[in-house]
Amino acid sequence: MNEEEAGRIVGLYRRHAAAWAAARGTEPGVEAGWLARFAALLPPKGMVLDLGCGPGRPVAAHLASLGHAITGVDSSPEMIAMAQAALPGHDWIVADMRGLALGRRFDALLAWDSFFHLCHDDQRAMFRRFADHAAPGAALMFTSGPSHGIAMGRLGGEPLFHASLDAAEYRSLLAANRFAVQAHVANDPECGGHTVWLARRD
User: Fold this and answer.
1) Could you tell me the CA-to-CA distances from 128 to 38, 89, 168, 179 in Å, in that order?
2) Is the dihedral of CA 195, 106, 128, 52 positive or negative?
3) Taking the chain (202 residues) in consecutive chunks of 10 residues, what is each chunk's mean pLDDT?
4) How many CB atoms lie within 10 A of CB 52?
5) Which helix (H) or strand (E) holds 79?
6) CB 158 within 8 A of CB 141
7) How far is CA 97 from CA 47, 162, 169, in A?
């Protein structure tokens, strides 16, 4: 049943896009410290691929305010429409990150509170997608769970799927795809309990 819930994520975020965006807000909150660490690895006017960008605020908008060029990808057309309205000077694409093949490489890749909605096997496959879109020296930041398993939350009164591999497997997948871990904190108390990975392509 939980694996079936993973397949309902796209529809769930489409139905609740406006409510989710309103609740998320427009300014960085607990993620501000990690965004600063991520941005410190970017070159001036870096090209950022934001996977699961949602409505473009607050994360993409914050990076854009620092002078970076954003390519945002989200499977929800409703989310992408909001991102285009908020940040019209950037590139917004309706697509599923699991099949992404843009034929371009970026200075940084971000999957904040999006990657962890994929099932275990889809997460494993994403590391090749990350590598295919990463320029030499590119930063990669994503959120996961603290240990292997599945957790169910709620969005708009409906079940919301989350999954995670264990830390050792994430480290192995990163290394196999030539990403070196720069920082990792599980259940970070300074980030609302997020488990965060920051890595860099060699």
Assistant:
1) 20, 29, 17, 11
2) positive
3) 76 89 87 97 98 96 98 96 96 97 98 96 98 98 97 91 97 98 98 98 96
4) 25
5) helix 77-86
6) no
7) 17, 16, 20
- For residue 84, the domain's CATH number is 3.40.50.150
- The pLDDT value given to residue 146: 97
Please return the burial class of 29, using the count of CB atoms within 10 Å of its CB with bins 0-12, 13-18 and 19+: exposed
Q: Vertex 170, ends 13 and 140: CA angle to 5°?
A: 65
Distance CA 74, CA 176 (A): 26
Cα separation of 83 and 69, whole Å? 13
The CA–CA distances, whole Å, from 45 to 4, 61, 71, 108 equal 40, 14, 13, 11
State how far the Cα of 51 lies from the Cα of 98, in Å rounded to an integer: 10
Domain with 185 in it = 2-22+31-201
Encode pLDDT of 51-90 as tens digits. Answer: 999 999 999 999 999 999 999 999 999 999 999 999 999 9
Task: Work out how many domains the chain is built from and give that number.
Answer: 1
The predicted structure's pLDDT at residue 12: 86
